Amino acid sequence: MLLTFSNDQDNYLPMIVAEQKAIKQALLDHVDKNYLELRDVQHASTEEIFYLVNRYHQRLHIFHYGGHADRESLQLEREVGVVQTAHARGIAGLLGTQNQLKLVFLNGCATAGQVKVLLDEGVPAVIATRVPINDREAQHFGAQFYQALSAGSTIREAFRKARAFIETTRNDLDIQESPLGRGIDLSRLHATEPIPWGLYYRPDREEVLDWKLPVESPLEVNFGAEQWKNRWESPVNDLLVNESLKAIRESEIVKELARKIHKERKAGNSSRRPTDAEKKDTLVRAYPAPVSVHLRALFSSSHSAKYDEARLAQTVNTYQKTMQFLAFILLSDIWDHHHRKAGGIQLNEAERLQLRAFFELNAIAVKTFDYFQLLHALLGIISRNQLVCYVEELGRVGPSWSTDQRMIECNDFFQRMRSELEYDIPGRLIEAYGMEAEQRLAQLLEAIHFLAHYKMAVVKHIEVKQMKHMPPKAYRHIIVELDNNYQDIGERDRQQELAESTDMESVLLYRETLNKSLNLSPFFLDENALIREYNSKLYHFSHWTESGLCYYWMENEKDTLQVSGRMYPRILQQFELVRQDLLQEEAPSRVATEFDDDDILSVI
């Protein structure tokens, strides 16, 4: 359901906000139970309406408008308080493309002139007004209609109840019908009889008046096993998959699967349930690539047959890489804040020691480094410096996340498993360790379920579209999306024009648009972006070597990338700059600033 509202500073309607709140309150139960998706726009523009209708294509059931209107147009807002006229024929053409649409409710002055256009475009039913209406009455009528609809009434019944409320509470019902000749011949429309509101419908779609709000959620798909006599008796991956899917059920990827199953059930396959393959694929596609690539490995046939040592090692690795990913997000965010905040970021001594340990990781120290402890320090820095996290959900949990007893126990278990895997684990313990590792990993994925709303992309190259003595018109970005289909074969580079520039040769985390993203460089880098190859090959920082930095390929740590003063010196310089900024120390003399002859030959 799409609720749109508009106002005018010069002809202000004080009850518009009250109408919006009353309708949302009336529908709250349906929204809470996932029976209904509700989107509302307070200062609606033509662009926003078209965007939302396109976004929820073939899922829109009711379109509501509240605000100034006349027989030929709706008055929208290009900006807050800036009037924008939306002609009825264009809006009608848009809404007529929605096969699931049941009702258009135009709660504005004298909107009956728009009815014929809407019905001609295929809209089955319209509520509109023939005469100017009182602002407060419009608010009451809308609220009463949706309260009745939410209580189980049909469209026809809800309309009659709302009309009865107005007739009961009004002191004067002497509002006269407008003449029928106001641009359309209303006598040829099938309509109920009230004034000022009318319920109009297409004669071939009268059954729509008996439509009710759904009381079944398309998302009510049981992702859990039927009945577990003992949770440890479930097959490998069941606990991890089912618990993790429940945690991210509000993500668009899970809703997509739920809608598919719901549609097949309605088509006659009443016993349709998500298959194991569908559940695993949905979970993998939901998370950003640094998490999903390791889940994919965990769900592979080589790790799904039984709880053996190889599976335990992969589960531990998935936990470790997920914690590392979270740390890299916060490090990148804090570095950005350091450059924006007057005076920079302030650290206490414990935080400084933890950051220094990370920035000085070598091949030995990295094997036992605890990213959970680094996360604790980073969350403390964010809290004490009152920073607003790019990943808002991480900012809201704050330091309490890393002091939660369940998370501490979870981390303690995985750190112990890292040590155990260095030696031979007794066979009698492998299965128990494997089962507990799966349970603990499910706890982590539940705690970070919000990451399912974020995506990643590599920006390889940026071209500026600019004419002489004119500001840049656009920035053409050559990008590769990293999420959902990371292992697809084929050329995946694409062009995207943005109004603002991001950063070249960068790895971005974003929620909605690339212009509002977090640059994760130099903690992540894409080799193909650096060497101008097609597609993507993503690496993450691991540790220092004698010559520079060692990066691991995300899919296989045996494939490493060495960064030094000879190879990719800008990455090395950038890493040193992060270290210097955050620790507020002079950079050590690791970065080569000039090429000698041997360096040049090496590069060639």
Overview of the molecule:
InterPro entries: CHAT_dom. This is CHAT domain-containing protein. This protein folds into 3 domains: 209 residues, 3-Layer(aba) Sandwich (Rossmann fold), CATH 3.40.50; 166 residues, no CATH class; 150 residues, no CATH class. The C terminus is likely disordered. The strands form 4 sheets. It has a 7-stranded mixed β-sheet, sandwiched between helices. Strands 12-11-10-13-14 form a 5-stranded antiparallel β-sheet. The protein is α+β, with helices and mostly antiparallel strands.
Descriptive tags:
18 strands, 3 domains, seven-stranded mixed beta sheet, disordered C terminus, Rossmann fold, globular, 604 residues, 22 helices, 16% strand, five-stranded antiparallel beta sheet, alpha+beta
Report the CATH topology name of the largest domain. Rossmann fold
How would you describe the shape?
globular
Q: What ranges have pLDDT less than 50 throughout 5 or more consecutive residues?
A: 172-189, 222-233, 589-604
Q: What structural category do the secondary elements indicate?
A: alpha+beta
How many domains comprise the coordinates? 3
β-sheet strand percentage: 15-25%
CATH class of the largest domain reads Alpha Beta
Question: Nearest-angstrom radius of gyration?
Answer: 30 Å
Distance separating the two termini: 61 Å
Strand order of the largest sheet: 2-1-3-6-7-9-8
**Total of DSSP H or I helical runs spanning 4+ residues:** 22
Estimate percent helicity: 40-55%
Largest sheet: 7 strands, mixed
Mean pLDDT: 82
What is the name of the CATH architecture of the largest domain?
3-Layer(aba) Sandwich
